[in-house]
């Protein structure tokens, strides 16, 4: 008489992987955990062909592969947590800039009708003279001044908001232009201005974060050349 043997233990194990346990269905993320791997490995060893057992190097390779995959998965999770923490710190630091002045490359001067407006120029070597000109929104010249033999490097200028006659101008946006004589040749110099930070726009990463500058619109954090003292 031939006897049929039912592999109940293997079936029970397969059912447990499917989340079936006495009729209760567990929530499954779809990914095998370390416990699942070792359970599978145990089943593999239990049902292997006794005449062709698994080689030790194959078993070690399987365990090493899973350990590496599990480590990479944990590293990715930790990195995401770290990135989220960095973004939060960046957002907190950026929010502290609201109301402060930052320097960006621009030829625009912001005049509030009362306080001085500040700009800056990087003066190249062998500069013998500079002519600083300020224009209103219509393009009319408001004021000009000449600086002889300026020192090489950063040169800061301050405009009190008056024209050539000493009359205070209205609040608004003005344009500065710097014409210089460098090594005997005429050229225009790149200007920058100090502008108040009105607000901060937060993005999904630090690269998306923007500072909204009064009169100049949104600028990236990488566009900021200098943060003025509060």
Automatic annotation (TrEMBL):
It comes from the Bacteria. Residues 89-224 form the FlgD Tudor-like domain. Residues 107-181 form the FlgD/Vpr Ig-like domain. The keyword Glycosyltransferase does not apply. Keywords: Bacterial flagellum biogenesis, Cell projection, Cilium, Flagellum. Coiled coil: none annotated. Required for flagellar hook formation. May act as a scaffolding protein. Belongs to the FlgD family. This is Basal-body rod modification protein FlgD.
């Amino acid at each position: 008489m031939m006897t049929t043997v039912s592999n109940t233990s293997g079936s029970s194990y397969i059912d447990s992987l499917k989340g079936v346990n006495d009729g209760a269905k567990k929530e499954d993320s779809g990914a095998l955990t370390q416990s699942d791997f070792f359970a599978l490995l145990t089943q593999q060893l239990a049902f292997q062909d006794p005449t062709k057992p698994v080689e030790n190097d194959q078993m070690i390779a399987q365990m090493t592969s899973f350990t590496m995959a599990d480590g990479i998965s944990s590293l990715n999770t930790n990195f995401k947590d770290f990135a989220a923490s960095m973004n939060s710190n960046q957002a907190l630091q950026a929010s502290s800039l609201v109301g402060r002045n930052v320097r960006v490359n621009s030829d625009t001067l912001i005049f509030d009708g009362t306080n001085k407006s500040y700009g800056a120029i990087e003066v190249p070597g062998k500069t013998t003279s500079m002519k600083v000109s300020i224009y209103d929104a219509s393009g009319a010249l408001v004021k000009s001044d000449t600086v002889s033999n300026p020192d090489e490097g950063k040169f800061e200028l301050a405009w009190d908001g008056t024209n050539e006659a000493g009359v205070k101008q209205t609040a608004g946006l003005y344009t500065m232009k710097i014409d210089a004589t460098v090594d005997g040749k005429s050229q225009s110099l790149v200007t920058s201005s100090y502008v108040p930070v009105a607000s901060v726009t937060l993005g999904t990463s630090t690269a998306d974060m923007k500072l909204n500058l009064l009169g100049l619109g949104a600028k990236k954090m990488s566009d900021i050349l200098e943060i003025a003292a509060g």
